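Researcher: First entry.
Model:
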Amino acid sequence: MQQNRVVQIVLSVFAIAAIMVGCAAATDDGGKMPITTASEKAKELYLQGRDLQERLRGTEAITYLQQAVAEDPNFAVAHLSLALTAPSPKEFFASLNKAAALAEHASHAERLWISGFQAGVNGDPEKQRKLYLELADAYPKDERAQNILGGFYFGQQEWDKAIAQYEKAIHINRDFSQPYNQLGYAYRFLGKFSDAEKAFKQYIKVLPADPNPYDSYAELLMKMGRYDDSIKNYQKALQIDPTFVASHLGIASNYNFKEDGEAARRQIQVMYNGALNDGQRRGALQAKSISYIFEGNVEQALKEQEKRYAIAKSSDDVVAMSGDLGVMGNILVEFGQPERATEKYQESLKLIRESEQSSEQKKLAEQFHDFNLCKVAVKAGRIDQAEEHATAFSMQAEATNNALQIRLSHEMFGTIALNRQDYDRALTELEQANQQDPYNFYRMAMAYEGKGDQDKAQELYEQATYFNALTNMNQAFVSHRSKKMMSTK
């Protein structure tokens, strides 16, 4: 399982900080980032939770972290860690907001971490970069500080910089497990499968009794098309922890690629039946929806999304509900129902507009509404209108120098050019779009076919077909289309 780029653990403080319940003790250990808390018991519980979290056993970590903040309610970084293990968006933002509210009482280093994290959530990567660089520079001997900066580079798809940071973290502490995992993924995204395999095998040596090293290695094998070997390694992970969600999803993904949707959904049902919380149940329903999309069964895919929405609604999780409506819109637009998609996108935005989310989150929702309406306009053949939405989105992306959003801008402009049969412009744009999205390979294949370059088109159709990403809806959208284009040539 790949570490989410927001799952970056920092425990930092420069000095004794006065907080409401008294004085928080700051402890520093040989150039490592200090931990600030008013309670030794809270610190002990936090460290147990941190260890589990860093091994990507977040569900187990939650109990310790909850106990830590119960012992010291003003333990800001413990609240942040709770956000990173939260099973739902509602719980995520509740914990993150608590951490942010306590940051003014925390040390400079803790504020760097919390503020940097918030900047990323709010779509301001340049601010996040600046804060994480400052943190890493302040603690050059701390493996976690270097890992945090590596995680930022990883999230921005700056793979070489990420690798350098992970190597720094490993050099400081060869028993620190997280960098091996992310190092393997960084090499995988660069197409350096041999280096990725070495990193994952070393990860297994560091944590031989944990599920995630086998899970991550299994994902690499899946990417390489070694489906049966991949399933065996996912099963090793599940032998260690039968509730390890990512491995259930990985087995299901392999069966989807083997065109055995029934087997995929049987595995997903096992995951659903053993789910420990609503977040895991929602994850299973999302995976089942994707499996149906691989088969072109749009109505059943939508039913699974409606079940997800019902779970979110039962806990009044507005962010999750908004996201579910957006996914329904994506499915509808892909299957030629742009007007129904528009209704879902409008409902999604309305929920955020009327919610208690921050102004930054509401602004992001407005921006991505343009992205969604661009897709609708393209599908409906309203290309000039699509360009208006793409331009509005792009202007905000450029204003914040948000690399991920800028890639989406290129995707939009590339798709528009493709529909105008301006194949050279389409390729120029799409080559700057997200290269970890199989849909963009499909779009580029269509552009090369439009130019009459069948060999290059076939190469890209094949890449789209066998991209082999874990529970990836975009691959489900294009898989059969791209495979059909391969078989007809």
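Researcher: Second entry.
Model:
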Amino acid sequence: MESIELKKIVAEMLKEGSSLDEVQKALDVEHGEKMTFFDLKMLVSELDVDWSDQEEDEPESETVEAEAVVEKKPLGTVVEISKLTRPGIALSGSVNFSSGATADWVLDQSGRLAFEKSEGKPTEKDLQEFQEQLKAKISGG
């Protein structure tokens, strides 16, 4: 798919209120375009979109905040492996946990796994799902 066409689809979905996670899944499922979360964020930063007409309402209570977190929650933990190789790092990528937490992850050449740039705190179930998905992706499953 051409870059211009891809940008139009992404901009349209974002204007309709889709989250980046929803856009990422739709690109894969509906358009056969696999894209890491990082690559999608970079593409969005290149868009010439006027976001001023989209107002974010301030939550009035903790209940509203909790509902907002639930709405942003992915259907399941989504693990992406970066195509870029960093010095001293065997593999790296990003993860969107089903609880709504996100992080970048790195696996060094000694096999140690670490999270970077995390937002939110993943649950124990999130971490189990992450490990299962990462193992499946690494083994080609």
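Model: Note on the second entry: Residues 78-138 form one domain.
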